[in-house]
């Protein structure tokens, strides 16, 4: 995947300076995305810009690059951004979960042992923010550019470093915890119901032949025992 | 300011399986019963209905029906040397927080625990000698027998629509059932569920290896059913959304569609939801309790509810917490080995293998909570000699599926990359063509595995959190090693294309990921107040009008899921209260 020299983020950052240009900008930013989409028609149509509720420009660029690297377009599925995984992640971070709903947030804070689970004084959204900044800092140090502007092979190197703990963050959150959260949210964006913004067109479920929410299998159990079950996935919105 | 309310006959704390059973049984007598439930009301029609119930993110990942740890949690550590830290979000276990409790989102596997457990110390000492049991293994007999409990198991199974095949009716071994089970008076209320491919393949392999596979008994109604109380069940749809979900088909035996509506229909019953009980109040003489205090979580108002009888039915963990917060009974001290409240906390252990079969379709999205075949040859089978293996306890092994939804379950052969095209191809190839064999193993009590109040952290009501100190010991590691071997031998005999073998667990217990909501002990039952918190009727030795109902009374944990004996003991306690305690209030067993 080629990265434009002058990408959407640069455009928006300059656009903020000259207020009038910003309005015209919205139309312009759609172009690189459409041009990039070597996808089947359905995916391209669904990939209309949806806007971000939490991610700032750097973070959006990071997440888009991340999900497109982890979920490349191939014969199995459209790429991560065409599945809406970036949108899923943004909405999850902006929403109650990202803000720490159900998380016990009283100190004192200690790192503890891995067997004691999550112990950071950060909501998931704060962790994401700190982790992206620390990963980008690492990328700048190692490659001179943030994650979204490095080459594919370098991105691969960074993700391996994060997932194995070979990369460590100075004064940042533990890499292990950041990576676990990052990975889990990517999976959620692929396989949760499309009402949450990811798994667009149920293309995540289609990867594995998961039928979605239709689940009246009383007669199917014997009928399809050992046989493929023909199904077109159905989601919550299809029945609402 | 605490508002003191009018006294009632019975107050029930928590309205899940045990609270529901006791509410239904005790309102039959005409007593005025009030249930205080911290969660909100939910119903099958409104909440557990299509399409919204079929949402893995909401119910499995975000814990919609479960305890909110922002308000109350526990602190955890593996041993007394470690700093205990709060379990900041749920993971290893998922207690419920709605009307119906964990009984709404359980899977329904329903077992009868036998004298193997109830007489654990006597059995092992008699067969293997006193020295076979390690010094720090604080197992003890329960003070109850299988024969006493049999009619109550029967009652629970018929109430909850358990589907299964008997293996032993009145001493006669029956084909197709579990030959190692203790004698039952009659068949299960419903025939077993229709087997899925994975359970059929496991059944064949286990039988060829000389074991005795049978369909796991489960409260997933294999046919439409009306229970003896008149509660109506639909037939299970094998919907694949069982564990952690409410049942859309009304086919999963749950308190919110059986015992609770029956109690609710009676004028002498009142349910107060969003009512968080903070303390059980002791009478001035210390021999009785006088009621409870609770907070209405919708507006923060505090109430005192006086009652003649108090029943703690707040789940295994919360019951112990309430006992410690209320100062009833002597807290357990693992160093001096004195006191009883908090003693013998146990959990379960396990091992699992994934088998990949090129070209076979398992359709992992079609299954019931109990869609598996099981062998009990290494558990309730007393002929299985533990001496050469040097462990106490046992494990069951099963092949099948339970709620393998795609965020959580996408098996790939080990060595597959975690992302990228190759990973996607492997996911696409193996999601439907893999199956799992797993084992669930017992955990014996250990003097250092226990609960007490945490010195540092507090809940939303300003009360100390409960501290859990727990880890597996050598005994469990040995057993886990044997379980992994058994799994792998069976798995290899099935000739999978690829196998991710089971391995023995040797790491410490961790609060993530999910393991099971099978927490036991803390206020254990027994024959005397020196080494137990409650007598065989689950009645507090200290305060005779207080009963503590749930798996918290189990002196150790077996390989089986707990709700069979939890439900049976709730009926047994209800009987003791109705037929003996009400006539002559006082200790039902003389200390
Ligand atoms: C995902 C999952 C799967 C399971 N699968 C199985 C299985 O297959 N087989 C099996 O045997 N068991 C299974 N279990 C366990 C089973 O659900 C429990 O054993 C059973 O529900 C215990 O009944 P109980 O009455 O003790 O607690 P619950 O049914 O949990 O009810 C306790 C109630 O008390 C309320 N409460 C707690 N504290 C307070 C307070 N301070 N004030 C007021 N109310 C309070 C809670 O909100 C809850 O409603 C499973 C559990 C889970 C979570
Ligand atoms: S598997 Fe059966 S019992 Fe379980 S939720 Fe689905 S329909 Fe209900």
Summarize the structure in short.
With 240 residues, chain A is mainly α. Chain A has eleven helices and no strands. In chain A, 51% of the residues lie in helices and 0% in strands.
Explain what this protein looks like in three dimensions:
The complex is a heterodimer of chains A (240) and B (591). By secondary structure, chain A is mostly helical. Chain A has one domain. Helices cover 51% and strands 0% of the residues of chain A. Chain A has helices spanning 8-17, 19-36, 41-46, 57-70, 80-83, 85-94, 124-143, 152-164, 175-191, 203-208, 220-223. The longest helix of chain A has 20 residues, at 124-143. Chain A is globular. Chain A starts with 7 loop residues before the first helix and ends in a 17-residue tail after the last helix. The model of chain A is unreliable at 1-5 and 15-48 (pLDDT under 50). With 591 residues, chain B is α/β, with parallel strands linked by helices. Chain B folds into two domains: 2-164 and 218-346 and 445-471 and 518-581, FAD/NAD(P)-binding domain (3-Layer(bba) Sandwich), CATH 3.50.50; 195-215 and 349-441 and 479-507, Cholesterol Oxidase, domain 2, CATH 3.30.410. Chain B contains twelve helices and 24 strands. Chain B has helices spanning 17-27, 56-61, 102-105, 115-118, 120-128, 146-159, 197-208, 259-264, 316-326, 421-430, 474-493, 563-581, and strands at 2-4, 8-13, 33-36, 74-77, 85-86, 168-169, 172-173, 214-215, 225-226, 232-233, 269-272, 275-282, 289-296, 302-312, 343-346, 349-356, 372-375, 395-400, 434-441, 450-458, 464-469, 498-500, 520-522, 546-548. In chain B, strands 1, 2, 3, 11, 12, 13, 14 and 24 form an eight-stranded mixed sheet that branches. In chain B, strands 8-17-18-19-16-22 form a six-stranded antiparallel sheet. In chain B, a hairpin with a 5-residue loop joins β9 (225-226) and β10 (232-233). At the A-B interface, α8, α9, α10 and α11 of A face α2, β5, α10 and β20 of B. The structure holds flavin-adenine dinucleotide and iron/sulfur cluster. Flavin-adenine dinucleotide (FAD) is lined by residues 13-19, 36-39, 94-97, 101-103, 105-110, 243-244, 276-277, 313-316, 318, 517, 550-551, 561-563, 566 of chain B.
């Amino acid at each position: 995947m080629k990265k434009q020299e002058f990408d959407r983020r640069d455009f928006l950052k300059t656009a903020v300076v000259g207020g009038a240009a910003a309005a015209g900008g919205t139309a312009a930013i759609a172009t690189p995305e459409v041009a990039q989409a070597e996808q089947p028609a359905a995916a391209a149509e669904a990939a209309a810009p949806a806007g971000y509720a939490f991610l700032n420009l750097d973070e959006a660029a990071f997440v888009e690059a991340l999900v497109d690297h982890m979920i490349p377009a191939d014969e199995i599925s459209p790429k991560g951004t065409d599945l809406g995984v970036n949108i899923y992640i943004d909405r999850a971070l902006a929403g109650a979960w990202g803000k720490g709903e159900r998380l016990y947030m009283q100190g004192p804070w200690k790192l503890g042992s891995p067997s004691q689970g999550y112990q950071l004084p950060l909501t998931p959204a704060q962790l994401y923010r700190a982790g992206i900044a620390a990963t980008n800092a690492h990328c700048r140090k190692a490659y001179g550019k943030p994650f979204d502007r490095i080459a594919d092979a370098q991105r691969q190197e960074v993700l391996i470093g994060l997932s194995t703990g070979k990369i460590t963050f100075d004064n940042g959150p533990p890499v292990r915890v950041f990576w676990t959260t990052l990975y889990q949210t990517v999976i959620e964006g692929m396989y949760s119901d499309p009402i949450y913004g990811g798994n667009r067109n149920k293309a995540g479920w289609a990867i594995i032949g998961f039928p979605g929410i239709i689940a009246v299998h009383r007669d199917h159990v014997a009928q399809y025992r050992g046989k493929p079950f023909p199904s077109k996935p159905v989601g919550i919105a299809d029945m609402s | 300011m605490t508002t003191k309310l009018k006294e009632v006959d019975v107050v029930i704390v928590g309205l899940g399986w045990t609270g529901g059973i006791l509410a239904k049984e005790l309102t039959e007598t005409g007593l005025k019963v009030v249930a205080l439930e911290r969660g909100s009301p939910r119903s099958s029609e409104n909440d557990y209905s299509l399409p919204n119930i079929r949402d893995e993110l909401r119910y499995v990942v975000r814990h919609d029906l479960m305890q909110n740890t922002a308000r109350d949690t526990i602190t955890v550590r593996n041993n007394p040397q470690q700093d205990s830290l709060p379990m900041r979000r749920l993971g290893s276990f998922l207690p419920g927080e709605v009307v119906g409790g964990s009984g709404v989102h359980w899977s329904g596997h329903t077992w009868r625990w036998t004298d193997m457990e109830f007489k654990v110390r006597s059995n092992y000492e008699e067969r293997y000698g006193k020295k076979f049991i390690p010094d720090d293994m604080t197992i003890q007999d329960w003070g109850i027998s299988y024969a006493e409990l049999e009619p109550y198991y029967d009652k629970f199974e018929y109430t909850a629509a358990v589907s299964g095949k008997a293996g032993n009716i009145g001493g006669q071994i029956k084909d197709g059932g579990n030959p190692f089970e203790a004698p039952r008076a009659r068949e299960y209320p419903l025939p077993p569920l229709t087997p899925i491919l994975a359970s059929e393949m496991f059944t064949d392999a286990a039988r060829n290896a000389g074991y005795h596979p049978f369909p796991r008994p489960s409260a997933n109604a294999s046919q439409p059913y009306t229970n003896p109380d008149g509660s109506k069940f639909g037939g299970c749809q094998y919907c694949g959304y069982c564990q952690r979900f409410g049942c859309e088909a009304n086919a999963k035996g749950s308190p919110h569609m059986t015992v609770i509506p029956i109690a609710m229909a009676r004028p002498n019953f009142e349910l107060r939801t969003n009512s968080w009980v903070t303390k059980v109040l002791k009478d001035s003489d210390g021999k009785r309790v006088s009621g409870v205090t609770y907070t209405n979580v919708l507006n923060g108002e505090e109430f005192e509810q006086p009652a003649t009888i108090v029943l703690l039915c707040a789940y295994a963990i919360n019951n112990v917490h309430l006992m410690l917060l209320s100062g009833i009974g002597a807290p357990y001290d693992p160093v001096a080995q004195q006191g009883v409240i908090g003693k013998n906390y146990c959990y379960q252990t396990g091992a699992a293998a994934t088998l990949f079969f090129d070209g076979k379709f398992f359709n992992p999205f079609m299954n019931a909570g109990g869609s598996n075949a099981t062998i009990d040859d290494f558990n309730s089978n007393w002929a299985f000699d533990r001496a050469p293996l040097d462990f106490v306890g046992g494990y069951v092994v099963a092949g099948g599926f339970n709620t393998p939804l795609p965020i959580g379950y996408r098996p790939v052969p080990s060595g597959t990359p975690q992302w990228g095209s190759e990973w996607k191809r492997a996911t696409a190839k193996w999601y439907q063509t893999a199956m799992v064999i797993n084992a669930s193993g017992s955990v014996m009590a250990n003097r250092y595995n226990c609960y007490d109040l945490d010195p540092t952290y507090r809940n939303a009501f300003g009360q100390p959190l409960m501290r859990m100190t727990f880890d597996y010991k050598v005994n469990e590691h040995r057993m886990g090693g044997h379980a992994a071997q058994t799994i792998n031998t069976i798995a290899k005999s099935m000739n999978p294309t690829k196998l991710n073998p089971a391995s023995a667990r040797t790491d410490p217990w961790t609060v993530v990921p999910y393991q099971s909501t099978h927490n036991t002990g803390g206020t254990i039952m027994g024959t005397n107040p020196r080494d137990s918190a409650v007598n065989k009727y689950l009645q507090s030795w200290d305060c005779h009008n207080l009963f503590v109902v749930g798996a918290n009374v189990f002196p150790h944990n077996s390989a089986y899921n707990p709700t069979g004996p939890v439900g049976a003991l709730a009926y047994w306690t209800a009987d003791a209260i109705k037929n003996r305690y009400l006539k002559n209030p006082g200790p039902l067993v003389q200390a």
